[in-house]
Amino acid sequence: MSGFVIGQRWISESEPELGLATVVQTGSGRVRVEFESAGEARTYAAEQAPLKRVRFRAGDKVRTREHQEFLVREVIEQQGLLIYVGENQRLPEAQLSDRLSLRGLQERLVAGRFDTSAAFELRRRTLDLLHRTRKSPVRGFLGGRIDLIPHQLYIAQEVANRHAARVMLSDEVGLGKTIEACLILHRLLLSRRADRILVLVPESLVHQWFVEMLRRFNVWLHIFDEERCASIEAGEPGANPFLDDQLVLTSISFLAADPRRSAQAVAAGLGAPQPQSSPKVMAPRANSDTRRPECPSSLYFIMISSMSGGTGFAIG
Fold it and tell me: Is the pTM of this model over 0.85?
């Protein structure tokens, strides 16, 4: 960028909050500007200065240094400096208010501060691709570090697309029930149908599930036990520790042995809706349906337990 003249008014494209800048020094391939309203000064290489010329047009309303409103009737340029002509007076650009930041859309358009058509088209295409990705029927099923078997993808898609994902996965040993359960969980998380998850597993599988979910799906489950719950309550007496994290992993025996903790886990799932969407919780499945009838899809449950003939997954 070149053509700087002492007294011209510019605005920083990288720091528009500083207000209008005044050129105070040029030469040797550099330009020095002062932001009087912010008490700041910057020196740039003249050819690469992140500055945009401030140029108003006839019909625009500007403010002077004395905070008076000035209606521009005509713009005259003399030796690189602009003079704004009003009803009965002239306003050199050096007398413009320093506090003008050009943050508003109209102000930016008036000052010519807008991007190229190519940049706009790039953003539009990016948003379009992002929209198509989020609408993809396989979103949440791809990306995991796993080799899918066709029936796993079919089952995961069938369950995840249900209004209420209540199923029991009870295939034969070795057919990938764990992967199916993880795919369903991953899909519900990415589609924002599940914001809060409680995963229950046997004590011996807690750390295995933590490692596998993180390694294969990049989902960080927070392990809860009595020590962690007590620590949370010590820092915030009366708080429900299961509301401290959105993705919780704990053992079945931990909740089964402590009715108070079990009640807290259920209460966390039945809590107030989150600001962005209704809470979706994976919590222990009870014999009776604990969902509220007025919010049939607000809760999700997942429980992994040993069954005769192998391991089964109850999701609901």
Answer: no
